[in-house]
Design a protein that fits this description.
Blueprint (H helix, E strand, L loop, with lengths): L4 H19 L13 H13 L9 H11 L9 H16 L2 H15 L2 H12 L1 H42 L5
């Protein structure tokens, strides 16, 4: 089963938030007015090196497919044709993948100097940086599984405590 657009976007944003926290998060930096071309290029290289670019693979195809599916409510008999058109149009829109990279790169370039971006890029090109990029999917998956188990336990504990407190007040839940 193919992940939904929301799941892919969520995963991409989650990956962005994690990766930003590892190597670059010192403290919030003021935004620069307009990043230089050199800053933008280093930032693009960083987005590719740190694996963030891959987090958005498939997003455009999902958006195009979703746009085509939007016509299904009023034209359910055209499902196969809409699917074919969406598939045929994907390459046209996939060319715009660089726009996503530029948006992410711009966010970095507005917050980090060219020298800082180069330092971060050097880290992600190092063996440790590459290990972080390569292991990040497994790390995120493990973290999500652990958080899900933890939240289920916390929910169970909260339910138990609420029942106990309500029982003290004369209510049996």
């Amino acid at each position: 089963m193919r992940p939904s657009l929301a799941q892919r976007l969520g995963a991409g944003l989650f990956a962005l938030s994690l990766s930003g926290g590892f190597a670059l998060a010192q403290q919030a930096q003021p935004l620069t007015a307009q990043p230089s071309a050199a800053q933008m290029q280093v930032a693009r290289d960083l987005v590719n090196a740190n694996g963030e670019a891959r987090a958005f693979n498939g997003v455009i195809a999902n958006l195009v497919d979703g746009a085509a599916l939007g016509f299904l409510q009023t034209n359910p008999d055209l499902a196969p044709q809409l699917r074919d058109v969406a598939i045929a149009l994907r390459p046209e829109f996939e060319k715009r993948q660089a726009e996503i990279i530029d948006m992410v790169a711009s966010s970095y370039a507005q917050r980090f100097s060219e020298a800082e971006l180069k330092e971060a890029l050097a880290f992600f090109k190092s063996p440790t940086g590459q290990k972080l990029v390569n292991d990040r999917p497994a790390i995120v998956q493990q973290a999500v599984q652990n958080i899900q188990a933890w939240s289920a336990q916390l929910n169970s504990d909260a339910l138990e405590r609420i029942r106990a407190e309500m029982k003290k007040r004369g209510y049996d839940l």
